[in-house]
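Protocol step 4 of 5: obtain the predicted structure for the target chain.
Materials: sequence only (see below). No template structures provided, no constraints applied. The aim of this step is simply to have a reference model before the mutagenesis design in step 5. Sequence pasted as it appears in the construct record:
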Amino acid sequence: MKKHIYALWAFFILFSQSIAASVEVRSTHMTTGDGVANNSIRYIYQDSKGFIWMGTLNGLSRYDGNSFVTYRPEGGNKISLIDHRIRDLEEDKNGFLWIATSAELFSCYDLKKDCFVDFTGCGEYEQLYSYKMTDREGNVWLWQDGNGCRKVTYMNGEFTSVVFKKENNNLPSNNITYISEDEQGRIWIGSHDGIAQVVGNKAVLVEENHDAFKMMSFGKDVFFLSGTGTISLKREGEDSRLYQPSVEEVIQGCNTSETPVTYYSKEMRYPRKGGFKQFLSALVENQDIRYNQQVISIDVENRLLRTSKGDEYQFDRLISSLPLPEVIKMLKNVPVDVCNAVARLHCTCGYQISVGLKTKNIPPYLWWYIYDEDILPARVYSPSLKSPDNVPEGCSSLQMEVYCNRNEYTREELLARSVGKLVSLNILKQEDILFTDIRFEPYANVIFDHNIYEARKTVRDYLFSLGIETIGRFGKWGYLWSDQSLMSGLKVEM
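Step 4 output (structure tokens):
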């Protein structure tokens, strides 16, 4: 047995030596004398056909293994190489070679037809762009710090493109710093003045006054790094406005009470009269709105809404701000996976306790928070501080928020553990109270647990497939603030 082993190893050694002996490495030095466009070669690239492309300071050369073909800018109306100084080359999945030049201009070469093409589809291929990114769908994104950006799409043998600029597409700035794609396939445009997300062929402003430097995604979370070193977070379906302090600011906050005001909105604009209702007045003016009716069923097949009064309304398009579980209840033959997803959507209930006072002697804070366990309200705010026109002359008002899992408190218990507690703490005086009002809200705040993202997407995708679009805090099932809820409706394309 040992002899056989030794013989085998001997054969292997002899065989490996014969292989090594057969390898021969050769090199050839090629210059302009051999056909290269220029001896200063900046980039070398091999395309899918095997051709070697050499980008130089004086033209673009293609090598087939035997000879060179050189491309340089040509005069006239013929589409040719846009500039002779080449800095980068890359082939896309459709067989087009993208050529970046030092003049901040791009050329596009069709490897199948052996010719340069107008990649914009509209004759605007001489626009200035410095950078390029290809997304997972094959779209090419070009941008420059000062000229906005362009999305290039190749479909059915034709190029089309869409230009994104501050003037026409809601970009915060034309000074683009990056275009990135996250793990969910969403496109983000960063600029010196803010960040936008691309929805279809429109850019939707996500964050203003943000000098965007870099973006990174982790799962469904997207992190934005600014040029000043701050980091902000964007989660699917919601806008993050949490301020991320620097290390220096954290140290300052530990050592002194003189900390900067970092609340997302240092100033507020609130209607002098009419409250939040005023924001909606212009939207509903001259609209046919039916009041005091409750929709009890949605007939998707026949495009009908049925109400508790027995009325039926035909619809072409349905936009709902109702909570997602309530919309699902109105539908028939809902798939099991959608029903299971709805069951995984959780939220808190809440009470709103309003107090009218015949004095202006209340805490001088628009909002304030209570952490004592025996006092039910988590937050107290004052409508009269938002605007004195919300109350009669010389009066004031407070509203308290109580969060719970269900309608579990009596009126007496609510008043005793909210208004009564504030009286006992000398925050309010019993003789100043004009009236109290208590209202229960079955949907108060969305609960963000591990199930929310997948479950929410399942439900909303199903409704969208039926032609039902959802808006608002509970239509989108996210923590949308008042302005965000309003804007979610305005962003629906009509």
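Step 4 remarks: The chain has three domains: 32-235, 277-345+449-490, 347-446. The domain at 277-345+449-490 is CATH 3.50.50.60 (FAD/NAD(P)-binding domain).
Proceed to step 5.
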